[in-house]
Amino acid sequence: MAGRPDLSGYNYGAISSLVLTADRSALPRRDKEPDGAPTSLAGRIDPREMGSRVIRQAPKDLDKKKKKATDRQDASEKQTAKRKAEQGFGYTDIIEATQDVEGLTYRPRTAETREVYELILSSVHTALGDQAQDIVRSAADTVLESLKNENMKDFDKKKDIEDVLGPVSNEYFSQFVSLSKKITDYNAEDETMADPDMERKDAEIDDEVGVAVVFDEEEQEEEDEEGFEIHEDSDEDDEEAPEAPSDDDNEGDDAMVIGGTSQVKSTKADEDIVSPHSVDGFWVQRQIAEVYTDPVTAADKTASVLSILGSESNLRDCENQLMELFNFESYHITKKFLKNRDVVVWCTKLMRSDADERVNVEVAMREKGVGWILRELAGDRQTKARDDAMDVDSKPEVPKTATLAPGSTVQPKRTVDLESMAFSQGGHLMSNKKCKLPDGSFKRAKKGYEEIHVPAPKKKEPVAGDLVPIASLPPWAREAFTVSHLNPVQSKVFPIAFGTDEPVLLCAPTGAGKTNVAMLTILNELGKHRDEEAGTFDLDAFKIVYIAPMKALVQEMVGNFTERLKVFGIKVGELTGDSQMTKQQIAETQIIVTTPEKWDVITRKSTDTSYTNLVRLIIIDEIHLLHDERGPVLEAVIARTIRRMEQTTEYVRLVGLSATLPNYQDVASFLRVDESKGLFYFDASYRPCGLQQQIIGITEKKAIKRYQIMNEVCYEKVLDQAMKKDQVFVFVHSRKETAKTARFLRDMAIEKETITHFVKPDGAVREILQEEAGNVTDPALKDLLPFGFGIHHAGMNRDDRKLVEELFADGSLQVLVCTATLAWGVNLPAHTVIIKGTQIYNPEKGRWVELSSQDVLQMLGRAGRPQYDTYGEGVIITNHSELQYYLSLSNQQLPIESQFVAKLADNLNAEIVLGTIRNRDEAVQWLGYTYLYVRMLRSPGLYGVGVDYQDDDTGLIQKRADIIHSAAVLLEKCQLLKYERATGRFQSLELGRIASHYYVTYSSMMIYNQHLRPTMSMLELFRVFALSNEFKLLPEKLELAKLLERVPIPVKESVEEPAAKINVLLQAYISQLKLDGFVLVADMVFVQQSAGRILRAIFEICLKRGWSVPAKAALDLCKMVEKRMWGSMTPLRQFKGVPADVVRKAEGKQFPWFRYFDLSPPEIAELIGIPNAGRLVHRLVHNFPKLQLQAQVQPITRSLLRIDLSIVPDFRWDEKIHGTAETFHILVEDVDGEIVLFHDSFVLRQRYAEDEHSVTITVPMFEPVPPNYYISVISDRWLHSETRLPISFKHLILPEKFPAPTPLLDLQSLPLSALHNKEFEEIYASTIETFNKIQTQVFQALYTSDENVVIGAPTGSGKTICAEFALLRLWSKREQPRAVCIEPYQEMVDQRVAEWKAKFSKLQGGKEIVSLTGETSADLRLLEKGDVIVCTPSQWDILSRRWRQRKNVQNIGLLIADEVQLVGGEVGPTYEVIISRTR
User: Fold this and answer.
1) Does pTM surpass 0.70?
2) Does a cis peptide bond (omega within 30 degrees of 0) precede residue 488?
């Protein structure tokens, strides 16, 4: 590339007269000569701008170095970049987010007009209510177009705007007009778009990039194919396409197939593809020789071509270099070389290398990921169409045992980009290409939209004989049912569900009675624990877990089961984010109904296995959620359960209930269901009420037109139903939108004079509605009720909602516009359901996304009232692009895919923390239990199992190893675990444990790791919190600007940054500010739900690091979020129901909180100035958790201190306020209060609320001795409840420095013969030949002298034999006195007696070894007869107390005191006494 001439000198900027174009704005003017007086910089500089102009320049000759990155990486990086661009970092403002919306006429070009445009957008937004950004942008665009239209009068302009925005007031309109005048760059299409920040920069041709020259589109395609990924409709995928009819003609003309991409490949592209077989060592030379006939030139060019192709540069640079080489001629050769780059380079290398080199080349090829060339050369082309019936013996297997040796399966070959493997559309992924609709479906195209009608399926009439009567259940079980017969679905499943323990997967449409099937499996489990004679149940022997996806469903199930099972004395508990259960409560319940996330959290913690081990049956409702964003949680829970079950052989029955889905076999094999026994699949004809569907796709390009058409279509459909007098639900996706849509429908009906269809002007119904409207609090509802329209959403108060439900149920209301909560929470069916628009705001993604399949099915499930209708109608109004998806979804043709890759790293970490995975091989085995694995085997192409995996890897072991390796590398990078690459061992680290327990993503952990500092205060913690990855996508700007002024802690970032938004939201939440703006409210809820656990995680990290300041700040922050109050407010706010004026007055007086404790009620009343509040406040002050501390310090060594802490609760316990327990954190900090030397938590239980508690703490001590340490005891839940006690070391006397240990001499080990006694040597002959070093060194002292000896040595160094030396010395004398051996604990006594009996019972005619009993007279007899007496200190203490009278005690010859270091422990005093007594 060095040859390219440098043209930058000819740039206009470089040769124009720069003097004339210089920017003079910054130069001093004459009239403002500097006079040396100091001037203020206020207003001239913006602190946020500091450092904003730093430009780092890279060294010049980076070209070559940069090109070193391989193509491979280049391709993958392009993809990540592309993906990043698609996701966006939660655009902070609408303008950027909607840059690519079709049909816009105006884009702001300067910073000023951009600001004006933002104001227009915000007023349009308020007028339109909660709509997706593209609609707002498009509406603003249309409004502006009308305003800028010179040929219209203001009156017409206003009318135009009202068409778009609905009724507009005059002042509102004039505001629009004035704003539109400020937009000066309207219609300036020819100007380039200016990014406000870029305006000042000169446009230069970029040296790095150069000018892009585009040759041909095919070239472009090839660049994408670089990564050898199988594309959506490449040929390989054809085998997996779900039973596509081979030829559409013979299918009968009335079957509709929608979608289906044409599978004709462009053949032109393939002419240039060269097969590896045809490339030999001189193929390149032959190709070039066709152009350059001169052999020397040809040889030179060949060498250059090979070096260019073989270099690490990316495709485009290669192309440029080749074109230069051929002087920009003979393009076809260049194209051929580039297309076959890998084949050309590697085949030539292979052909030119001899046998030894060839091996190296092949290895290099595998590493570079071009192994497919080798396989093609070996001629195994047939592997692509690999047969499922492979040889069973040849499969490499991963064993199922619970522990695998590290490195026992396969080594990973490369890391894979997990992020690009994950499906970016999440639950919206649709892998089927075609959607086959039932007979009788037809399509209609109208102006602006298309309708597809699908008829209701014929209902199957049940045959009376097939239904199972309840009477066939055992008598005790019948009480759980209120019906006389099971329905057809339940009857089919009955023999398996109730008679066996088979795992079950039941796919049936909504409303087919799946709950009763769950009930049958519960009763079956109960039957096993029933005592036949007494008729009672062993309720502690089992637990049943019922997992439902939504809180609303959980509550419904709890109600249902509690009601039906109370006859058996069964307790049902609810466990969700809102309702926790204590361990005690969990122990007392038999059925736990929970959400997947909550159950995941519980099974992640290995400490709570007490009850998870009792689970005998897990019922997973709505298991098709595997396809959803939340699928990975289900997958993790089920895989964990099955793996534990196979390893511990404790059977857990899995029951999956799901909507109808096409690939039910996959889900069945994931749940380990036997397809012949436990798999049940019922199609839509089993729906109690058939569903006739209309799916409407709006084809209009302009977003605002789409929105208007959607409203009109909605009106038409509602009107159709009203004419038939059928009731309608209209589902919309935000609360504001309910009233807006209802008003639109009403106004349209009045305008077109069809309102009488909705309510008769003089009927009784109208009277009822008029009357009820008087009792309503919600203004919108009051306005709408008299016209027969109702609205319903979670933001309304309870009475209004109840009223609307009753009016709808008795038929007074014709149309009910509501949000999805109605579908989940209230069991109200209607004849028709209209889903108006399928976009909903998702705070996690920070943008509007398509509804989850789950919600759509649930809403459609409300269509049709089984008691009145023969069928129900469902209408979905959506964008044309989504038509295919909803057709597949509602016609059971949406295959369920695994979303596990997206959360793989987090789940892997959780398993490693749990201890179920210890190395890569166990992880590979664990992946084999996931649904991801089932799907990878079924459709490898979809999951990026490329051609270079499939040949011999039947169990995809290699692929799994690579995936796990990649995830482990990610986790290691974030410091959540240690990963030894060679052996594949994993070792969990602290951060990993915190991440798993608090459910924080690995990327957020990395952010905290980078940003937390030991000196952080509350202000900075807010910023760290805001950086969490959980929130990286929250948008919305104008609302924020208002909030920014109102929050107490200043926010450093500008409104533009997402971090500012989260920071503001959290502060707004704590300050209890009111928010307007649906999106903000949704984001607020999301931030607030995550805040608790994230802050707790930050607290734990700081504690583990020993940073006192941020740890305390984080704990305070947790409490502020939980209590929604700032630290500066009065602690009285933490009690519920304190009158507002008391709080206000207390905060007005700057009276320190700790002094309240000393005041009497009258004094408090006087302080606050409210006479009757004194008693109340006094009571609360004394309910406030307060502890008194005292500490005793005792040095153990010079570097260790023991602190005995006594804690006395000093408050009145009130169960309503404190519950059953209060948690406190004990921290010991150093003298500066910066480092945590010790931390522990302390739980105060209600029944011990009066007692003194003592805690023993050991902390390190440093030289020089610090003046003091601090002990803090901080409440876990109460702000300001903190007791701090300084411990002074002024009079502390540290023990002397210990003498150094005896050096271990390097002596030659003594042989047994050193004992010089045949009989003694016999004892040891069978076990050892020589004594060890310690024994050798002490031998002289023990065996040849009678000196007192102390031996201190680590455990296991053979001290027992040293004691035996002393015994043998004793026994080698003439008169043999008694020996006493003191062991601190009874167990050790028994062990020692047994050991010595075995050793010495034959010695010198048999030695008597006895142990004392503790009963004096018996002990004296034993003392008489024994040679060696083994006893505990207290037993010997009793005997030796009267040693003057007792002859036998006086004449002992040897006292062996074992474990004498325990003089400092609990048996210490006794031990000390007996040893000193012996002396």
Assistant:
1) no
2) no
